[in-house]
Design brief:
Layout: E1 2-7, E2 27-28, E3 31-32, H1 33-43, E4 48-53, H2 57-64, E5 67-68, E6 71-77, H3 83-93, E7 101-105, E8 108-110, H4 114-123, E9 128-135, E10 143-146, E11 151-155, E12 163-172, H5 188-200, E13 203-206, E14 211-213, H6 217-226
Parallel strand pairs: 1-4, 1-7, 4-6, 9-13
Antiparallel strand pairs: 2-3, 5-6, 7-12, 8-14, 9-12, 10-11
Helix pairs in contact: 3-5
Length: about 230
């Protein structure tokens, strides 16, 4: 299995507590956040990871190099910010494979069974599968609405009720974007998923275990307490 990790963001909301490092390199215990994610992906069977990088990319490249704990590491460089969707397309163009690939954010750790998600994707003959996570309060993330098998719509942030949120892990076929007129820079969610969800009919897979997004200082602080203790992730 292969994964693309979007690791090019500026981490603006974390600047108050973490300065001069790209967000995925924010230190947690004695290693960067991204190292925890990569080590977990290795345990889940990933053999090849592509890191999409931009902001302070040299720090990421110097730390992880071309191999990390036996995983092949390649880099796709954004010369300018392309948005989440643009970064995905840019990375997929470099992939040279027709096998489904996981794509995820470098500031989010989702504990799930990646092998089972891959099998589900193949069984359902999906072109795109979301990892969803049930939470008690959807207000920070927005709510994902599903039927028995598919993601069908989205509700904006602010709804504080229980429901499913987008966990930020996708499994997609590399040709997913080929039939859609898209600019070089675009948001995966706003410019692609939201307007085309009915045509795409994405599948979903539930992540029922640990989930953390270090995008805000409060959750970055929580990661400091929790991730180093998870020796069996």
């Amino acid at each position: 299995m292969k994964a693309i990790i979007l690791a090019g963001g500026f981490g603006t909301r974390l600047q108050a507590v973490v300065k001069d490092v790209p967000k995925p390199m924010a230190p947690v215990g004695d290693q960067p956040f991204l190292a925890y994610l990569l080590l977990y992906l290795k345990k889940q069977g990933m053999t090849h990871v592509i890191l999409s990088v931009h902001y302070l990319k040299e720090q990421i490249q110097a730390y992880f190099g071309k191999e990390f704990h036996g995983m092949q590491i390649d880099y796709v460089i954004e010369d300018e910010p392309l948005g989440t969707g643009g970064a995905m397309v840019h990375s997929l163009n470099d992939l040279q494979s027709d096998e489904p690939v996981f794509i995820m954010n470098g500031d989010t750790f989702v504990k799930l069974d990646y092998r089972a998600m891959h099998a589900h994707h193949m069984t359902q003959h999906s072109r795109l599968t979301f990892a969803l996570r049930e939470v008690a309060d959807c207000s920070r993330y927005g709510k994902v609405i599903t039927d028995d098998k598919h993601v069908i719509s989205f509700q904006e942030k602010g709804d504080a009720s229980r429901g499913y949120i987008n966990a930020g892990v996708y499994l997609m076929n590399p040709d997913l974007f080929h039939s859609y007129p898209l600019p070089a820079k675009f948001s995966f969610e706003t410019d692609f998923i939201y307007p085309y969800v009915a045509a795409l009919r994405p599948g979903f897979f539930l992540a029922k275990d640990y989930f953390i997004d270090i995008g805000i200082p409060e959750d970055y602080s929580r990661a400091q307490r929790e991730l180093p203790l998870m020796t069996n992730i």
